[in-house]
Specification:
This protein has 10 helices and 13 strands. The protein is an alpha+beta fold and about 325 residues long.
């Protein structure tokens, strides 16, 4: 167990109440970053170099149940996960932070993802957020969203944003202890917005986002310019959400994603999450815009593309991309 992380958790839970249940249950939505988080100023506490903004995916995410047990058992999509896998070790290490507070030597964790796992669709974000929310339900801590966001961040940086529905901003913060690096909901509902998920490759990525990020920060010469680009994009995206300027939102989100992948491709040895089909799809989206269709792309650390558009473009998008999965982020939100 990392002592810095444990002390961080201990401080948050020091004033929490307790009302133990037999089973804790929770759902957390996956989220797509419109202004990406890429790079950490602190690896231990998962503190980002730059602030980010995301939109959640309604009812697409992770459902988690957790029970106290004598040992850790992880069941993902109805399959028991070997305790020696990197996935299990990461979960156990995270749960180490909570064992004494939960009065349990182990946990049985059952998670079902209705999004592809480890395919660049933010399954770790919803997974760790759902785990923290389920722990909160199990123990009766009654933590507020700020504290839940702080705890989820320790498992996965993007999980900080998956505590909420809708538009979310994750503040990078400045404090060394990470106390000001948490997410907040942006109080804007935009029911006309649609997200289309184009699944190009659902297999597990050859390199994790976490490892790719670390190597990129260490070796990419272009990374030095990333924080200033991200800050500029964040400001534009935040303003476009407030005034509901869709073209500004979409164009800036696309620029931000493409800039992040440009920085990633400068990593030594070269990392490229895009496949030939990813590049082709991006060209098709550009071609649609030249024909006055307001559609924009964003791509996380993976090959799959998410398209942003408004409801009035739905027929065109479905005709152009036959297998696109349409999500209405403000019409399919869980309570």
């Amino acid at each position: 167990m990392n002592d810095i992380q444990y002390q961080f958790v201990k401080k948050i839970l020091s004033t929490s109440s307790h009302s133990a249940k037999e089973v804790g249950r929770a759902f957390a939505p996956s989220n797509i970053a419109l202004c990406k988080y890429w790079g950490k100023r602190d690896e231990v506490l998962n503190l980002p170099v730059n602030s980010s903004i995301s939109i959640s995916l309604g009812n697409k995410g992770s459902f988690t149940e957790i029970k106290r047990s004598n040992k850790d058992t992880f069941i993902l999509n109805d399959e028991i996960i070997d305790n020696q896998t990197a996935f299990s070790c990461r979960l156990s290490k995270f749960l180490d932070l909570f064992r004494s507070h939960c009065r349990a030597p182990g946990f049985e964790v059952r998670t079902k993802n209705n999004i592809p796992t480890s395919a660049g669709l933010a399954s770790s974000a919803s997974g760790f957020a759902a785990l923290v929310l389920a722990l909160n339900d199990l123990t009766g801590w009654e933590l507020n969203n700020k504290d839940l966001s702080l705890l989820a961040r320790l498992g996965s940086g993007s999980a900080s944003r998956s505590i909420y529905n809708g538009f979310v901003i994750w503040n990078a913060g400045k404090n060394i202890d990470g106390s000001d690096s948490y997410s907040q909901s942006i109080d804007v509902k935009w029911p006309e917005i649609r997200i289309g998920i184009i699944k190009i490759d659902e297999s597990e990525k050859k390199i994790s986002s976490r490892d790719a990020m670390k190597k990129c920060v260490a070796t990419s010469k272009k990374y030095n310019f990333w924080p200033s680009f991200a800050a500029e994009h964040l400001c534009k995206i935040q303003n476009s959400i407030i005034v509901k300027d869709f073209d500004m939102l979409g164009s800036t989100a696309e620029k931000n994603a493409l800039k992040m992948h440009e920085v990633i491709r400068d990593t030594i040895p070269r990392i490229d999450f895009f496949t030939s089909e990813t590049y082709q799809c991006l060209e098709r989206i550009k071609s649609l815009r030249s024909n006055n269709v307001s559609v924009y792309a964003t791509v996380d650390a993976g090959p799959n593309i998410k398209v942003l558009f408004l409801e009035n473009e739905l027929k065109v998008i479905c005709k152009e991309f036959k297998k696109v999965e349409i999500i209405n982020p403000f019409g399919e939100m869980n309570a």
